[in-house]
Design a protein that fits this description.
The chain is mainly α and 146 residues long. The chain is built from 5 helices and no strands. The chain has one domain. It is globular.
Length: 146
């Protein structure tokens, strides 16, 4: 609803670059997205111990789950014929989710899930705030060829 009312105070606080409210929103979105991926891997590990595929499926579903709903809405709700899901047109979010999942699984096995979650979240916060402050998409996953 915020995005459909451009003269609204909340819209201006969220959409104006380089404001404290925008940085705060970016901070909490970074915490949420990083911990969601880690939490989904922990949940899959608890439900399916030792099944790496379950952990990766859970991470990808948590990381880009919203794109599935956007695809269905665009394809069937609006009738757009040339719509692709993120699985067939990889974006930064999918590549980042896959990288975080692999790093989290490896680091959690060696140092524990709490330490792995802390370092991935801290890195993601720094990356998100750097992207926000420069105004550029700092895609550190572009070199992976996905």
């Amino acid at each position: 609803m915020v995005y459909h009312s451009p003269n609204d105070l909340v819209y201006s606080l969220v959409s104006t670059p380089h404001t404290i409210s925008r940085y705060g929103l970016c901070l909490f979105e970074a915490i949420d997205s990083a911990t969601t991926i880690c939490g989904s891997i922990d949940k899959a590990q608890g439900l399916f111990p030792g099944v790496l595929g379950a952990q990766m499926v859970a991470a990808v579903t948590a990381g880009i789950g919203g794109s599935y709903f956007r695809y269905l809405e665009r394809k069937f709700g609006r009738g757009m014929m040339t719509v692709e899901t993120e699985l067939f047109a990889p974006t930064t979010t999918l590549r980042r989710t896959l990288l975080y999942a692999v790093v989290y699984i490896v680091v959690a096995q060696r140092f524990g899930s709490r330490n792995a979650r802390f370092w991935i979240t801290l890195f993601h916060i720094a990356w998100s705030l750097a992207s926000e402050s420069t105004g550029q998409s700092l895609d550190f996953t572009a070199g992976f060829g996905i």
